[in-house]
Amino acid sequence: MAIFRRNKIWWTDFSVNGQRFRQSLKTSDWRQAQSEERKLIAQAEQGKISVTSASFARLSFTESAERYLQGRSLELSASSLKKERQLLVQPKRFFGTETLSRIDTEALLSIREWRVKSGVGSAIINMEMGAIRRILKRAKRWHLVAADIRPLKERRAVGRALSADEKLRLLRVAGLNEEWQNARLAMILALNTTMRGCEIKSLRWRDIDLMERVLTIRKSKTDAGERVIPLNATAFSVVMQLRERAKAVGSPELDHFIFPSCENGHINPASPQKSWRSAWRKLTQAIECPACVQLQSPADTCQNENCKADIRNVKSPTAGLRFHDLRHHAITELAESQASDQTTMAIAGHVSPRMLAHYSHVRLEAKRNALDALSTPSSNRARVQQSKRDASEGKEGGYDTSRDTNVDGIEGVAAELLEKNGRHVGTRTPDLYRVKVAL
After folding, report:
1. Which structural domains are found in the chain, ordered by start?
2. Which conformational region is residue 17 in: left (phi greater than 0), alpha (psi within -120 to 50 degrees), or beta?
3. Which of 55, 80, 134, 162 gives 76 a disulfide partner, CB atoms 3.0 to 4.6 angstroms apart?
4. pTM of whole model > 0.85?
């Protein structure tokens, strides 16, 4: 054990369990150097630092970030690694050539304040700090600052459920432009299956059983997301439309994607569509002129040459709606129905009631109906419940919403009701589900 000075800075050189440690104490004060050396020896004896981590801590942040990403490439999927790399873009810009051993609490608070001033949300900042934390943990430096760094509070009200009018308008508008058809078909699938956008884009024809009318999610965000979803009549109709479209450009194979990529008019069924972001943005922002009812993008004046009405204050009720909000809406409708929490979680791929509560936005009317049931006399309660069941099944006298997401060609087609007993994973009693089958 020895302390020596190099360029007015004290260094230490000691061994613990046969391992030699040689590093800077970052001070020119003799007393402080002795104190820092004792801390390092204690950390080495506790296994908090090693020869490897000590050398890693001497790297610049930019270099250490690259080495960290190389190591993570063996553990993460391509998409997760890409996200991790994106999260480190701004931290590398901020820290640059600063060594990990010099990054302290003040430096971490400074980068967080810098990101807040840049207008970045709390969720993104927390994810960036998470990437920094993982690098510092590898360097055995995080425990020195962990007590002073707490995650920023994130906004809880995430997601949106559509009103009945907004949902019907969105479905109607989506069918008015041929360029929006991919987004429209994907939207109807999401509304009828609770699937995420990434799950829809990764669907292949081998994932769909046309005989049993079910689809299998083989790859999802979480393990619970890998599930089997029955197709209702509307979702099955969309699948058949996609099937006919695939046949028109060639014979669809099992490994082909149901939403193939299309570049410069060339369709490649072996590659999935990357995004329908532009179509979705135009679809959700589209407005109708109050004077001539022409559908168009937001502007100051109507695009109709014979109208030219002032439309600068006209705004679409679905402006800002994310595609992921369709999943929120579908789960909300399941939560408002008579489906149990276990059934809803099995369909949506959730792992806990807390996650279900995060996604479902049970509306005020549903809450009001539930509370009204408490004041209903017991003699009338059975009749009220039967009336609600009739309404949910579309019987006369009830309000039938089963056609809200119907696509072209569904209306007027005869259907028979098939009843199948199926058992969801984790339940003890079979649930009864009904599927309308187009004849």
Report:
1. 2-49 (no CATH), 61-148 (1.10.150)
2. left
3. 80
4. no
